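Hi everyone,

Forwarding the result from last night's run.
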Amino acid sequence: MQPLVSILIPAYNAERWIADTLKSAVGQTWPNKEIVVVDDGSKDGTAALARRFESSGVKVVQQENRGPAAARNHAYRLSQGDYIQFIDADDLLSPEKITEQIKVLRESPPRMLGICPWTYFQDGADPERGLAENGWPAVDTDAPVAWLTDLLGPEGPFGMVPHGAWLTPRAVAEDAGGWDETPSPDDDGEYFARVVLASAGIRRAAGRFYYRKRPTGGSWSSTRNATLQAGALYSLERKMQHLLARTNDPRTKRALANRFVQGAVEAYPYFPEITRRALEKAHELGGTDYVPPYGTWKGELFRRVFGWKATRRAQAIYHRYKPRAETATAAR
């Protein structure tokens, strides 16, 4: 008997994208699937559009607005699948994505996770013309702790896996526990850290996940959001707890320290308490000399001469007093 796959979709004000997302879910070549959409208190026509797919086997439920993690947990509780596929309401799956992952996982040892390559594409652009990621970290491994350490970046640079690239056996998801509903921009990173650590390893398959990048005001504005900054630090602290419960490897501690330093830099100067806490955690882990790069040669030169705190203060002053005409041009 073919295993059942549950495709779980949280949705909030996704009227512009939900139809394409559901077409990609309904169009999966894997025949034995259920699709659950949890509308998280949308104020637009998301739920009505999703219900147009009910004849294709899509189940639509609504809840008061509680955030995407709560919507995913609700969808999971309603699901019955042997495998779990999470996807957001603006992203896409290639038609063979789940079929190829099931094929590989059925030929693998128990408790393996499926992973596939992914593509980042801009909203409104052709997904096939986006930035395709084809290599690491989408690899085979029987060492979840080491893989997760490398993802965090013991040498400084780090990696990420968008959560739609995974296919998770239900037994592994059960052992990992549900999504943490604390508001955080890294709730998926924290959740899948637990999933990876609950697994026996990872197996790469063909197929592709398409991650839509939408303009949200730019990364600088996100650094001035207290909820996002506090949530990111919370998720990182949780990752630290999960990993250090499994290993005392100095590389893992350095990788975590690097990420705490990055969080400290991103929070400064607007949220000094978050910066203080993050640097304190990095020190507890043994410290690190890593400082995130600044992207432009001017910013990097300023940092090398004056230090990262002075550079961040200068950035804050620049953005505070940027001429309105320049701001408007950048926002287009």
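Residues 217-292 form one domain.

Cheers,
N.
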